[in-house]
Amino acid sequence: MENSISHTRETLAGVNHMLMSKPNVVATGIGYKRTGGKVTGDLCIICSVETKVAAAGLSKRELVPPSVEGIPTDVHPTGPIHVLKPPTGRFRPAPGGVSTGHFNITAGTLGCLVKRDEKIFILSNNHVLANSNNAEKGDIILQPGPFDGGKVTDDTIAKLSEFVPIRFENQSGGCFLARGISGFFNFLARTVGSGMRLFAVDISHMENLVDCAIAEPVDGSDVVNEILQIGTPSGVAEGELGMEVKKSGRTTGLTNGVIEQVHATVRGGFGAGRTALFTDQLIAGAMSQGGDSGSVVLNSENEVVGLLFAGSVNTTIFNRIQNVFGKMDITLL
Length: 333
Hints:
Mean pLDDT: 89
Strand content: 35-45%
Shape: elongated
Radius of gyration: 26 Å
Largest sheet: 8 strands, antiparallel
């Protein structure tokens, strides 16, 4: 095998300039040839191209020959190759997976592009784009987010269009009878010096399905329908138990996991003592950290299955994408 690789490497060194001079070729290397979509055991010279074009559409000079000096070639479409910047940097056009946020937050992640009535929007979380309900329509969205150096004067990428309000658990709520009962027992607790208190809570009005918001780009050319290190989403799918998933986020970049729980009910903390209850959630293992909120979660076919909004050291929690799209009346671009 080593002799075969050595021989192929020597051959490639002699023809590399010719192959790289072809207008669509962006890389060359040695690998195994693919036939019918399957990898064979045959060594070949691989030519990576931005876009694979039918032979009939190319001149003889532009074509990659089927073999060079007896060694077969193979053509792999890779798209344009760029030096990878950290997701916390400034991107124009900006793909999904990079830093963004309302001008009054730290930073979260730009999820993906969606549309409604032929308009294009950025999708992310309420707590990323709408400052956990504390924003108004038309507020400025930055890329990168403020924590990553984004400034209103230079880095405005969109304006908040709409968000689904988060229903925070309210300890002062509840029905009249429940408040009366809890008040009576709290009076008894105070008389005996106990620090324990009871609170009436109206659970039926606290449940959430989604943590989501959309923002309209100021200039459509400032965004691109891709996700950093993943590519263009191919569609949407139902998240299922055992499904392999991935995401690209502002903090941890490209990570992978498996859906370990479905139809989950989750209580998440939003800071300042606020908590919110979410139902019908999907839970995967550890594949995110703070700042990854707003990332879209995809399956192995690049179909979007969820919108990441919370997690812990051991878990990653995301809304079902069907619930997000239904609440916002949007579709994938």
